[in-house]
Amino acid sequence: MKGEATKKFEELTKKLDRMKRRVNDLMTEIQHRSAENVEIEKIEAMVAEMDRMYSLAEDLQWSYEELLNEDDLATNVHEWNAFHYAVVDTRATFHVYKEKIMKSSKTETAERKAAGEEGKDVCSLRIPKWQLTPFDGDIMQFGAFWDQFQASVHSRTDLNDIEKFICLRSNLKGPALEVISGFSITASNYPEAVKTLRERFDRTDLIIQHHIIQLAELKKLTEPSPTGLRKLYDKLMLHFRALRAMGKDPINGQLTTDEIFLALSQRAMPSELNKKWEEFSESNASISANLESFLEFVRKQIDIEEKVTFTKGTKSTGVERGPTTLHGNRSKGIPGKYTTTALQIRTQERTRCLLCQKFHDISVCTQFLASDVEERWRIAKRLGLCHSCLKKGHRKIECGASRKTAAGETTIHDLLKRKDAGDEKIDEKTEENITKVCLKMSMDKRDGSSSYSNGSLQISRAVICAENGIKRTANCILDSGAQRSFVRKEVVESLGLNRPKEHITISSFNQRNEHRKLMLVELRLKGVDNDNFCVINTLCVSHLCGIVPPNPMMEEHDHLKGLKLADQFPRGEVEIDLLIGIDHYYDIVLNEIKRMDTSKPTAVKTIFECKCECNIIKKFWELEALGTEIRNEFEVSDVLERFKNEVRFDGERYVVKLPWKSPEVQIPNNYEQAERRLQQLEKRLINNDERAKEYDEVIKNYIDRGWIEETDERDGIPGKTWYLPHHAVYRDDKTTTRCRIVFDASAKYHGTSLNDFLDPRPPLQNQILDILIRF
Q1: Of 166, 201, 172, which Cα lies nearest the Cα of 187?
Q2: Which fold has domain 452-623?
C-alpha cells in the first residue's frame, strides 16, 4: 500500500509541474504580445486558454495538498500563492491593454466623425470574436454573463443594434435562447429582447435567497485540517463576495435579518404555497416582499385551508359529485355503472418503479431486493424516498402510512433495517409461509381408489450425499414447469447443512407474486442402484406438497419389462422431498424414450434409471402451481350434492345452508372480536350525528326485515356460532341510501375466519390455459 501511495504522489507531482509550465509559457507569451500591440482577439484567446489550464492546475493542487504532511504543506501553499498572483498580474496586464485598445478605437471613431466620414456604412466595422461562455438559462450565472456581455458588446458605440442582437443570440442556448427566439433580428427588437431576457433571468431576490440557503446548509467541519479549513473558507467567501456584488454585504450590515429569515422560512414551506406567494407578490406590487407580509400571507392560507377542510364534512346539497372507487377514494374517470365483475376485482393504480422503470412498487422490485441493506439505503437517498414507506414526495416524519414506536417515533421500512440479532427470527417467520406444490390425482367415484391412467407423475428415487458423509434416500419429482429446484427443510436439517439465504420471487396461478428469503443449498445426487451423480442448487422450503398416492402394479405393461425403474412399482404413499425444476431438469433427463400409445405409460431414461409418465403430463398446468390448491372432482361433487339436498324455496326466495367444508366443523366463539369492532364503530360515529343517524336507520331496517337479530354470547350452538364483525360504508354521491353495512366474513380470530370453514366452490371463470389453447 505504501508503494502505491508513493507512486500516486509522484504521478500527481509530474502532472502539476507540467500544467504549471504550460501556464507559465502562456503568461510569458501574453505579456510579450501585449507589449507589441498584437491583435486583441489573439491575445484574448490565449488568456482564455490560460484560464482553462489554470483551472486544471488548481484541481491538481487541491489533490496534491491532501497528500502532503504539515511541514511540506506550508511551503507548497506559499509557492502556489506566488504562482496564483502571477496569473492575476497577467490578467491585469491584458485588461489594461484591452482598455487602451478600446479607448484608441473610440478616439478614431470620433476623429472620423469630425472629418465628415460619419456617413459611411457602420456595418463595415469588423465585429471582434468575443470569447463569452454561452448562457444556458441558469439564473445563478446570469449576472456574470450579463456583465461580460455588457462590457464587450452592449456598451460599445461602434456597433449598431443589429450587430449586438446577432452577438447576443450567438451567446445564448437552451431555455435562454428560447426566451427571445420569437424576436426577429431587427434594430427595434434588440432593446425588447434585452428587456425580456433580464426580466426572466435577472432575479436578484432569488439569487440572494440561494446564497443564504447555501450558507445555512454548509456542513460542519468534523476533522479540522488546513486543507479542509481552506475549502470551507473559500466557500464562505464565494457567497459573501457574490452578496457584496449585489449590494447585500453581510459584513457591512447591508443584508438584513428580515431577508435571512424570509429565505429560511420560504425554504421550509411547501412548494405549492411558495408558488401562491410568488403570484400574490407579483400581482400586488404595492406590498413589499418582507418577512412580515409573508407570515401574514401564510396565516391567511392556513385559515382558508381550515375552512375548506371543515366544510368537507357537511351534508351534500344536491351537487353531483364524481364516482368513487371500491375503496371509497374519489376517482377521476367518467361516471358509469358498476358490474358484478368489478365488485369482485381489486384494482390498483399502476405505478412505475423509480429504480427499474417497470410497473410495480419498488418494495417488490427484484433489483432492489437483490441489493444488500447498505445499497438499499444509498438507493433510497439517491431517489429521495421516504425511509418509512419507500414512496417519493415526502419525508419520514411527514409519512402518513408510517408506523409509530411506543415512544411515538416513526419506524423505518423493513427492507432498510440493518442486520441485528432479531433477523434470524424474522427469517424463520418468513419460512413459515409455506410454498406448496399441489398435485391433483383423479379418484374413482365409487370406491375412492386412485386411477393410474390419469395420475402418473415424474417421480424418481435418488440418494442425497452431503459433504459430511451423511446420505439419505429422497423421493424426487421432476418438474419442467418450475424455474428453480426446491428441497424440504427437514431433509436439509437431517443432512446437517447450513448455507446463506437469498431473496427470490415466487409466481403462480391465481396468486400475486410472493417474496421469500430462502436458504440456497448445494446437493449431490446419485442413483439408488448406480453411481451416476450430479450436483444441483436448491432452495430450502418448509413444505413441498401433500402425500403422493401409491403406484399401481406394472405387470400388464409388457414394454416396460426388463427396465430398471427409478421409482418403486408398486409402492405405498410417499412424501416428496425434492422438486427438480428446469434449472437442472436436463442434467438428469437423457434422450432415450420408450413408449407405446397414449394409454400406456412412457419410460424416459434418466441418470437414476428410467422414470415413468403418462398422458397426464399434458394437464400439468392444472395439476401443479406454487401456492395454489386445486380441488379434486370427488370433493366438488360432494359439495354439489349437499347443495342440491339442502336448497329450499320459502315462498319468496331460495334458501340454502352455509356450505361447510365438513359437517363436524368446530369454530371458536368470536363474540369478543365482534363486540370490539362495534365499539370502534361507535367511537367513530360519536362525533358525527348525521352518519350515526343513518347507521341507526340501516340497522333498524335490517332487524325489521329479519336479516339480523340482537344477541349475546350465551346464544347459539357451541362450536357452530360465529358473530360477524361489521362496519359502515358511506357513499356521499348517493342521494337515497348513503350508508350500507359490510359484514366481514374474512376477519381473523385466533388465526382463523368464517371463510376458512366454508367451501368456496370451484371457480366459475374459464381456465386461462383453455383460452390460450383456442388461439
Answers
A1: 166
A2: Cathepsin D, subunit A; domain 1 (2.40.70)
